[in-house]
Amino acid sequence: AKRNEVWEASWITIPEKESAHPLLRQEFSLNAPVRRARAYVCGLGLYELYLNGKKVGDEYLTPNCNDYRLWIQYQTYDITSQLCQGENVVGAMLGNGWYKGRFGFEKMPDGIFGDRFGFLCEIHIELENGEEICVVSDPTWKWYPSPILESGIYDGEMYDARLLIKDWCLPGGGEAFRPTVLLENLTFQKLTERYSLPVKAFEALPVKEVIHTPKGETVLDFGQEITGWVEFVCREPYGKKVFLQYCEILQDGCFHNENLRSARAEMTYISDGQERFVRPHFTYYGFRYVRVQMEGEVDPYAFAARVVHSDLEFTGHLETSDSRVNRLIQNAFWSQRGNFLDVPTDCPQRDE
User: In this predicted model, what pLDDT tens digit does every residue of 274-306 receive, in sequence order?
Assistant: First the structure.
């Protein structure tokens, strides 16, 4: 952690007239092998950090849910193994999250804490030759609209793979990128080391049953109420959509999500014609069932439900001779896992 060290980086954003979810990038060169390196990172609302084409760390939905009026957590990463002698690229994706998106079950506007994306990154590198280098976020970083068209904790995500710039986080992949600007009137006084446990992805549940409902819907049953998301392999032709809707229960054997109130809890993926592994980046869902709409045949083996929650330590286990009591214990266990995704919730699936 930085502790009392002064921040050398600056908060950056995209020009005010732009409304797109941004990709950010910066190239830098190292003239010797890396001995050690660490990155201090924060984003408004959510961010994912990348180095040389690969995601940094195993956390998701960083920098977590904050009371942005009082404090904003930053994360520290050991990135030694992801840097190399020669050309390197650091990149980031930004999403709305709790900061910039819709928040609260009342009719609150978007951007309740802020209406502009922000990113802060400071990388300290020590080379084998003793040289020390600091790479910081500043207006020399570049940005470009990301394939994420919409993102929200309640409503889900829309991703158009046709808009993805190939190799955007590799050397030479940023020719189309544009200058960033400083994010004014944002100080470092609210920044703090992490309070939250990391949010991580755990086991993947296979499809237990494919249900063809009386309404003609195709619904995947994963057999267990979880908090997380559905991952899948997309093999759809160019321009075709895979549309997922999440729910907890069936009603009269059909998909039912009216109990989510205004939360849409959706995922739209538009194919670029390439076979790709797909997951959302800046949202999560509470669900057991997922309705799938797509032009091609639904292959249940291409889908899995990923369990996501705070990295809590399991401290005990209880099993009895009564299967009904065991099921009750398991229900409580899964409820705790599902409701501790950083900020404790009562219902992670709707507009709480």
Answer: 999 999 999 999 999 999 999 989 999 999 999
